[in-house]
Amino acid sequence: MTKLLLIIKREYLAKVRNKSFVVMTFLSPILLVAMVILIAFLTKLNDREKTIIAVLNESDYFGNEFVTTESTSYINFKNMGIQSAIDSTLSLGYYGLLSIPNDDSLEKIASNTFFYSKEAPSTLVINKLEKIFEVRLEQRRLQELGVSKKDFEEIGSSFSLRTSTFSGELNVKGFNEIRAFIGGAFGYLIMMFIIIYGGFVMRSVIEEKTSRIIEVIISSVKPFQLMMGKIIGTSLAGITQFVIWILSASLLLTIVIMVFDIEPASLNSASQMANNGLSEVANISTMNEKMMALGTEIYKIPWVMLITFFLVYFLLGYLIYSSIYAAIGAAVDNETDTQQFVFPVILPLMLAIYVGFFSVFNNPHGPIAVAFSLFPLTSPIVMLMRLSSGLGEGGVPIWQLVVSILLLIVTFMGIVWFAAKIYRVGILMYGKKPTYKELYKWLKY
Amino acid sequence: MNHILVAKDVSKSYGDNIALNKVSLEIPENSIYGLLGPNGAGKTTLIRIINQITHPDSGKLFFNGEPLTEKHISLIGYLPEERGLYKSMKVGEQVLYLAQLKGLSKTDAKLKLKYWFDKFEIGDWWNKKVQELSKGMAQKIQFIVTVLHEPKLLIFDEPFSGFDPINANIIKDEILELKRNGTSIIFSTHRMESVEELCEYIALIHKSEKILDGKLSDIKKAYKKNIFEVGMHSARGLELITSLKAKFNITDEKFDIAESQLNFTLQLSHQNTQEVLTQMASMAPINHFLEQVPSANDIFIRTIASKNSND
Predict the structure, then answer these.
(1) Which one of A108, A225, A400, B185 has the fewest beta carbons within 10 angstroms of its own beta carbon?
(2) B15 vs A441: CB contact, 8 Å cut-off?
């Protein structure tokens, strides 16, 4: 036990003192913040450049619909021929010219309206203009039918299906996606951690082989102790790095937001611009209502349960994969030889993420989602995505969770046994890269 | 005689490849025991079994009379053939770590390290990284790590490979001193010159089997062929040869007229050496009379050759 602690301590210190590790740990949050600043800056820059559109309106149906906004302004041309309007648009350097002819019906006008521009216009601009026409057409038709705008809005402008579980717990539409997203984030975190720190474990094993210290060490400790010490020490270093990342990134972001006075919302302004139409004003109140509902729902996510099982799945999943990585490191002499063995290891991880994002998002408790959340090599990721929708009634059945964890534990023991065998033989083998067949033989040594 | 280590019928195979086939050894306490054999004979496998790095398929091992178990690990010091150190770790930290893995407490380890670092005059390396050291320097560190915990049994696998002659001599002297202080030493090598100087006992491993073992002096006696190299002083060398040849079995005769020196090889069968000497001395003055003792290398080559021809 004391020997295991010694090994863990050495592996941890060796990792934490490593120059590239230190650089990565402290540089990454700075890079992240720099990226946020850059995005905010670029967005503001984009906002500053106004799109100016000339409007040649010959019809009576349109008047004050073209409202100048922060990003777009409209200039009205009057009493001009189409050709001279195009010429002046060009010479004034405007973005484009919207030409609305006169006709007796709005439909005919709409179908004869053209937008002229120097280059192919951006979809953003076109969407805005189309929105204006759509709203106007809608109003016109309602008028013809004798329905007032107010009446129409009251009929059912915003109907969204309220969903509820059988137990009567109310949900908000879109909430499942958010839950799945949070589960997905946890799953993604596990995958990234496994790939990054599994790789560290592997490189550390290879280093011991190439520096030829391995035989000195295993004459004092058991290979299994060394392997576990290495895995635990490296993962502690990894957790340290994650904690530093989270703390420093949030600290830096707070400072940056305060100093530069960036509104967090402005990071989304690109998407806001798209639906910057007229209807937005009317929707703001309902959107606020929705946001509040989502807020309470996020609050209602069973965080304690989710974090508990995140730790369980994280621990087991990481131990399984990093022992495979350790075995790979033991089997080869240098890093270039690892490719062939690493790929089949990453495959189930990728599969888990894709299955998670495509299948679990749509149907968290469908057969595929269930199967992948039971299969031990994918369950740490997929089960977490499912678990975000709750445990027990309306969520993951308890038996599935139990089976999944039991399978994971059994697999964990099997894989560690298998990896330890490969490791024990591999660390003393120098020279050529082994084939899968030879690896199989090693199991029997 | 007390044996520090006894191996009984130890066998180990890797798949279809037999690495050791019923090898038995008895290593006397406080001796230097040479484990000899060509590359790939199974020496390293045997050493790894003694160090409990690998486990034998069958056979038993005893350390100081007790069955070999994990608790004996701290009583054994092992310098493997494939040896190295963590390159990016500082020397001091690294030796402390390795010593603690062998079961020493940190304070104990520090005290003992100070002794060795002073002895080798390398105190100022403590805060250097291993990658800054030369190969010879690193090997001194490895030697210290091997002997630091004062093991009862030391195992050196090809200890002199890669050492320059000066360092090799320092290490050789240290090994001899450790032996004087009561340590038993196993010495695995295929380089025979070091065997002659150091080993009292040897075992010869060939193709996974032990084909010869015992006290080196006894083995040499057994391999002697009663051949002597003789030198005589005489101005009339040719006549002397003729009269000698009449009485003895003489070959390789060489006569140097200028120096009046006759050299030849004498093969004795049953005669008493003293009588032969008296007879020869009456014919002409003898200036050397030397028995040809086979070197370890000769024994090694002859045994393996005869083994191969028998197979």
Answers:
(1) A108
(2) yes
Q: Is residue A161 part of a domain?
A: no
Shortest CA distance from B155: residue in chain A: A219
Exposure of A247 by Cβ count < 10 A (0-12 exposed, 13-18 middle, 19+ buried)?
exposed
Among residues A430, A10, A220, which one has the least CA distance to residue B145?
Answer: A220
Residues B59, B202, single domain; the answer is yes
**Domain that includes residue A96, residue range:** 49-156
Regarding whether B59 and B192 lie in a shared domain, the answer is yes
CA distance B36 to chain A (A): 21
Give yes or no for a contact between B190 and B39, defined as CB atoms under 8 angstroms apart: yes
Which of B52, B86, B101 lies nearest to residue A3, judging by beta carbons? B101
For residue range B25-81, list pLDDT tens digits in order. 999 999 999 998 888 888 989 999 999 988 899 999 999 989 999 889 889 999 988
Residue B190 belongs to some domain of the structure: yes
Q: Which residues of B touch A6 (CB under 8 A)?
A: 97, 100-101
B52 and B201 share one domain: yes
Q: Would residue A165 count as lying in a domain?
A: no
H or E element: which one contains A428? none
Compute the count of residue pairs across chains A and B with CB atoms less than 8 Å apart. 64
Residue B26 C-alpha, separation from nearest chain A C-alpha, in angstroms: 21
The terminus-to-terminus CA distance of chain B in angstroms comes to: 35
Looking at the structure, do residues A431 and A371 belong to the same domain, yes or no?
Answer: yes
A109 & A142 share domain: yes
Stretches where chain A sits below pLDDT 50 are 168-170, 172-173, 265-282
Residue among A14, A217, A444 minimizing CB distance to B89: A14
Q: Looking at beta carbons, which residues of chain B come within 8 Å of A14?
A: 86, 88-89
